[in-house]
Amino acid sequence: METRFDHENLEKKIYETWEKSGLFNPDTYIKKGLMKKNAKSFSIVLPPPNVTGTLHMGHAAMLAIEDIMVRYARMRGLKTLWLPGTDSAAIATQSKVEGEIYKKEDKTRYDLGREELLRRINIFTEESKATILNQLKRMGSSLDWSRYAYTLD
């Protein structure tokens, strides 16, 4: 018999249930008859984290406060939207990637050439973005993922 509580699996299942319900999207409340069409609106745009790595404790504190505000607004019957997104932070991202390449390979962007540098920046960006989105979900953020935006889209 397993005596260790598997919180990771349980948290993942709970969040998947929340996502499948569609209730992070204010339009779902109206479609399901849980809210009036003319309900007052409440919205917050997630300050988009830069795709230069991972989230830190400052992000976690901000997410907790914003999530409390959003869930409280939903409980009050407001048409509530918490809009998610990430930011390219183009110069910072390029600098981070160039630094990693130099540290690992002792090469500069000039050694790589434009196309190869852009390819590597894109790979780093996609990996970082996936990590950040996973972190946002793991923290239980009730963001409307159907409206996710990336600043370079």
From TrEMBL:
Residues 13-153 form the Aminoacyl-tRNA synthetase class Ia domain. Keywords: Aminoacyl-tRNA synthetase, ATP-binding, Ligase, Nucleotide-binding, Protein biosynthesis. PROSITE patterns: AA_TRNA_LIGASE_I (PS00178). Its EC number is 6.1.1.9. Signal peptide: none annotated. The keyword Nucleotide-binding applies. One of its GO terms (biological process) is valyl-tRNA aminoacylation. The keyword RNA-binding does not apply. GO terms for cellular component: cytosol. SUPFAM superfamilies: Nucleotidylyl transferase. One of its GO terms (molecular function) is ATP binding. This is valine--tRNA ligase. The lineage of its organism: Bacteria, Candidatus Colwelliibacteriota.
